[in-house]
Request: fold
Amino acid sequence: MDQLLTTKLNIPQLTVALVPRPRLYERLYEGLTRKLTLVSAPAGFGKSTLVTSWLSESDQPAAWFSLDQGDNDPARFWTYLIAAIQTIHQEMGVEARQIINAPQLRSTEPVTISLINDISQLANDLIVVLDDYHVIEEGQIHAGLSYLLEHQPQNLHIVLITRADPSLSLARLRAHSQLVEIRAEDLQFSTEEAATLLNEKMGLNLKPEHIEALNTHTENWVVGLQLAALSLKGQPSYDTFIEEFTGGHQFILDYLIEEVIVTLPDAQRGFLLRTSILERFCGKLCRAVTDDPSSQQMLDEIRKSNLFLISLDTDGRWFRYHNLFAEVLYALLERDHPDEIGALHLKAASWFESEGHPAEAVDHALRSGDMVKAREMVLKHCPPILLKGEVATVLRWLDALPGNTNESDLDVPLIRCWALFISKQISAIKPHLEQANNAYEQLVGEGALSGTQQDLVAAQLAMMRSVLARDRGDHTMSVSHAEEAVRLVPSEILGTIGTQWNMLAAARGGAGDFDGAIEAYGRGIAPSHTEGNLIGAYGCTYGQTMYMLVQGRLNEAEGLCRSAIDLAVSEGHGDFPAAGWLYIAMARIEFERNHLDKAEGYLNTGLRITRPGGFGEAELSGRYLRAHLAAARGDLAASADIFQDTEQIVIAMDDHFLTGELNREWAMLYLKAGNLAAAREKLHILEEKIVATQHAHLLLGQRWLFPRLMCAEGRYEEALTVLDESIRRSRDTNSNGDLIRLLALQAVARNALGDRIAARPALQEALALGAPGGYISRWLDVGPGLEPLLRDLRDDSDTLQTHQPYLDSLLDACRAAFGESTRPQPGELIDPLTPRELEVMRLICEGYSNSEIASELVVTINTIKKHTSNIYSKLGVRSRTRAIARAQQLNLF
Reply:
């Protein structure tokens, strides 16, 4: 973490000696038994000083976060807050940081949920101090903090320092005795405390009557007493000064201006005024702003003079002025040197930019009033800030620029389009896209753009049109616009080529053109690598791998992923966050082969590397995979917990596709658990999202999950009708990986209707498709009705010998997944007995032999043997005795 950021997270080190305040310390200690301690009072009442001195006295570790206006971005606020906590507990908030970096996050609840879970695991109490909370105006931040307070673990205690009451549920906290309040009247100095300050700490040696008079004249105001103490030094007569020093707060501030600041040496006074534009500063920054080579010496002198300077680190390098003192200084600057303010801000902006702190640089540029320079800085620094997920900051910068008076302003609306796209505010893009397009056409007409510039802008406009078309479910038009963008992008701008191909692949995938998506991702890998765009390169590799899995190209996908990982490691990028996507893809490949331990190893590596790199498609896929790994090991409760946590994040993202994807994964788990009602409910939501998005990925899930549910409910004929159409569509899109599961389910449905012979071709085709890559998990998704069919196939002399090892692996996996301990409970038989099989089973239970059953039903003995074999397979047993016990367990009669 950089030096400047660290200063916001350090407990202030006041240069003035602290006055012990045991009566208030008791209140603060009381706050450790409540959810919130609110220290609320106007400027100058010693709020921060009180909390600082209490922490020093109590020797309790605390996370401290000093807020400023720039923290009104939710991503920035929570990033800083977590960073503050990590100064004490480095392991805290890792997942929460990952969630924050998902720029499309619409709610902060997932962040607070993750943080709450982490904090609740701590063995000790955690104190979190939010200083100057009154600067926060963003409603989403208030909502997130309210949620944290509502669900706060017992070992977390929040201290909130503010000039005004925050927009939180204070009344509810009071009603439940969860709030400790310290206000202005509590912070006022008693006579004893005033004596400690004036005599012991300030060395004035005043008489008791002098102290009482000063305390009365200043209305027990802490800053007023400090100002009085500064003014008393050097006075020939204490009595005369104290008699004249009277009045309210405004009088004292006026006195400060006239008697303290005005009397300072010109150089020191000028230094104070000119550095008042800075929220925090060090010697080098002050020198850059004031052009004074003796800035560090000046800071040392001010510190020695006790002029309301607050140290922000233990090294004494970074400082800030007391807020009230800074306000007075800035008011004097506006009065005496108004023409210098803009230049001072520009100097600060230049220094911050050179030191690698663009957010502070842009803020100063905007405050300078030089909108040309400010616009230049905004446009320069928006892209990297967007990549950090601080979309609200970018939008705030854009809003601070002058209104749309210039019709040829192309860059601002185009940047706004990208910000809205990244934050998933797709519906808000259209008017800004139109404005950008109008400006583009005007500039082209005026000849103001070079050929390369025209193509680059036109490509970006086409990409935004592609996004809008995809959002409204018009995937054909989305592909058309994305293809236009690829054609237009200048060949010399390699970094953008990866982005264009990525966009085209996403458009083609949404339209169901999986071959085209694989081709587009493949085209984007090399130019992204050439330009050093690792996010683009690894993103394309991940996307290409996922589509290969759908198409049954498991070995090819593995080769692609292994090569990419080897290259990343050899080039020193093995721990780059986006490289984690490659490991997540490898985990998916191993899971498809039912290599659960290998899959988990790759997954752990992938998720570790991606943090805190983001929370996108790959990370969500990783979460779903972790849930399915738990389910594959029989821990359905752990799987459900993972989905429940993920659901909070997806809900906050408020995205139709992501919601549909989540409900697809939920349905898979519920079908595995035999909870058909819950599966049906999730599939209904999936269907709604398909209507909203028309996205091919969601349609893939629908095509096999709906017939899977029908089979579980015994609706085999309906399932076969749906499966016929699903299989046809999968063939059309070369989705051979998906076809494995559909054909296996078709075989189970046909067998359930008593036609095992008709089930054989579907099973053989699925076997031929799955054997080369070693697909196994997709077979297990079909359920336990598959095992007897596979066993018959293995024992069939017509089955290819080359497939025997694969069949053995499938049967081993079925026995592990569908052993008797995990068989469906009574009334939940996945592959129900036919009416004739039930009749045979009833006679078996009554003690009839096979020949007696044949005579009773007037059929041949071979027919009864066939029925008996089917019954044993469906019940998962191998003997009459076990069949009878299983039938009783299932309450078949």
